[in-house]
Design brief:
The chain is mainly α. It has a single domain, classed as Tetracycline Repressor, domain 2, CATH 1.10.357. Helix 4 packs parallel to helix 7 and helix 5 packs parallel to helix 8.
């Protein structure tokens, strides 16, 4: 059953990327998948439902990449920086890989946010785990790792659209000066010591 569902999601993703979500019908997805409309409606109640499944499947790729970073055996400060880099690159890849979904991502961010909500909780847990690891190893001095994880998560989300559009200076892995400024800000803040 899940193979059929996965096939329908993959076909819908391709159609959405080529012709856009608004220009794709449930019938188009059924025809392209060589499945009847009844089969399609067995798995998805509407085009909106299959769109949500497409976005969720793309975000699962992101979260598997983030989970791999969390499990790396590196110091917590390095892990947090790698987490930020992987997160921004994977979000960018998800959006750019899907053609016209890119336009939908920017135009209908609230729709995407509804799908992301439960996955965001997973990301907050990942960040909290990194922060707690940093506190335990005396790298970070954080009193409330839960609140800080929420704050960092929302800060990272705020960087997504500017990053995807390529207007954030300093997130190029090859620009060590700008990268060091970002690292300094993240770990030391802006207040003079």
């Amino acid at each position: 059953m899940s193979k059929t569902r996965d096939k329908l999601i993959a076909i819908a993703r391709n159609l959405f990327a080529k012709t856009g979500v608004e220009n794709t019908t449930m019938n188009d997805i059924a025809v392209a998948s060589n499945k009847g409309r009844r089969t399609l409606y067995t798995y998805f109640s509407s085009k909106s439902d299959i769109y949500n499944a497409v976005v969720e499947s793309e975000l699962n790729i992101l979260y598997r990449s983030l989970e791999a970073v969390v499990h790396r055996d590196i110091p917590a400060d390095s892990k947090l920086l790698e987490f930020i880099n992987v997160r921004l690159e994977e979000i960018r890849n998800v959006v750019l890989r899907n053609g016209t979904l890119k336009a939908d991502f920017f135009r209908d961010i609230y729709r995407v946010e509804n799908v992301r909500r439960k996955l965001d909780l997973k990301e907050i847990c990942y960040i909290k785990q990194i922060l707690e690891e940093g506190v335990e190893t005396d790298i970070f001095d954080i009193i409330d790792t839960d609140s800080m994880a929420h704050l960092l998560h929302h800060a990272f989300k705020g960087l997504e659209v500017p990053y995807i559009r390529g207007i954030i200076k300093g997130f190029d892995r090859n620009d060590s000066g700008a990268r060091n400024s970002i690292i300094n800000f993240l770990f030391n803040g802006i207040k003079k010591r």
